[in-house]
Amino acid sequence: MLLRIGFDDTDHYKGGCTTYLCSLIVERLEKKATFLDYPHLIRLNPNIPFKTRGNAAVALKVECEDPEDVVDLVWNVISENYSGKGKADPSLVAIKGEVPEEVKCLSMRALHEFLPLSYVARVLKKVNVEQRFIKRGRGLVGAAAAIGFLESDFIDFTYELLTYRNPEFWGKPRRVEYESIEVMDRALRPYVFANIDYKKKRPLILSHGPDPVIYGIRGDFPSLLVEAMKMIKVYEPIDRWIIFKTNQCTGVHLFMRKKIPVIRPYDSLTVRGIIVQSPIVIKGGHVLVKISDGEKTIDCVFYKKTRLNVIATLIKPGDLIEVSGGVKPRRRGLTLNVEEVKIIQQVIVVEKKPPVCPICGTKMKSKGKNLYRCRRCKYSAEFVDFEIRHRNLPKYPLKQAPSAYRHLTKPREREGLESFIKKGVLIERWHYP
Ligand SMILES: [Zn+2]
Question: Which of 128, 313, 414, 432 minimizes the number of CB atoms within 10 Å of its CB?
């Protein structure tokens, strides 16, 4: 029987994490079920304020004889690893057979909007899927969304290989040789991506903090990720590793488009509008731009860390732009924190141009409104001349700096690679142990 299990918000007190738990589950489940796909690691709306860290949920797709037994096993591993000390509400959703359309719809909405738990619980009850949870079951949203996501109509996906530390190293600094990451990246790119911020010479693959992850390598082909792992030098044992199929690096969180009047808090989306006032540089070097779609306006903030603040200061009233990012409620109304911007149309800027002296040919100096005077021969005249200033702002989409990337951001180097047809079959060794 075909069985899908999603889980989320598992305990991360003292550094557990949902993907680590998944690797423990896969190891134990292998004897009882056949995996039909890599575990799905699904990142949900990154703009939700009370999300689990990284807002990731995991789903498994297996063929098994005794689904109850399999669900019990998964729930047991989740419960065994629940300390009760963190804020987590571990939750599990199990679906036998095909995924109901309602659940696919939840997946898409959980990526772009804020979905209340009560609403999700109601939908799950209606379609009669199994739910198990601790406390309020806040993880149900992610658990359900993870199951439906790659079954819905989004076709793009990538892979991530995650390596984990032996518990005795948890909390200690990670010692990975930077040069080996660079060698790996140069050898395998563009089929692996978002490994290094070359401008800052900083690896992006390393995890930080107390969680058990050493590093994660992202790419379009599972077998290349295994090769990449072999090339990276780590000065501690790799306790376990596993490959996930994921929606990371696809930019899918910015697919939703809305008109400004219907935008809601915490939406992730793309909006098109005309600049209605000159950009304002605010405290911290961030830049505020107001756009209108003819019906309503919204403030867009270009944060300094995204390095998009520079282009934002060059935008002029009248320009037509497309901005993508997350919507936050602020005192003065909703604002969009920009992750990507595309300048669709630039207004023509005409500037007054000082005339050339008709007598001696020198450039004349302005002496007040429309009055010009030649410095050399003192000839003066009232005169107006204009010239068109060429702006040449880039027409391609501009993305935030790699150090500000979110898990879902499609890195620049992956543009175009999404059209690869990937077989998506399991390679022989996709996890250890
Ligand atoms: Zn002159």
Answer: 128
| pLDDT on residue 14 | 52
Return all residues near 330 (Cβ < 8 A) that are at least 6 apart: 299
- Structural domains in the chain, CATH included, are 2-154 (3.30.70.2200), 158-251+408-419 (3.90.600.20), 254-346+394-403 (2.40.50.1010), 350-389 (no CATH)
pLDDT at 162: 96
Q: Are 289 and 312 spatial neighbours (Cβ–Cβ below 8 Å)?
A: yes
CA of 356 to the centre of ligand 1 (A): 8
Token duo for residue 373: 């005077």
Per-residue model confidence (pLDDT) at position 383: 78
For Cα atoms 58, 129, 35, give the angle at the middle one, nearest 5 degrees: 45
Q: 359 alpha carbon to ligand 1 midpoint, in Å?
A: 5
pLDDT for residue 415 is more than 60: yes
Question: For residue 351, how far is its CA from the centre of ligand 1 (angstroms)?
Answer: 22
From the CA of 376, how far away is ligand 1's center (Å)?
5
| Averaged pLDDT of the chain | 90
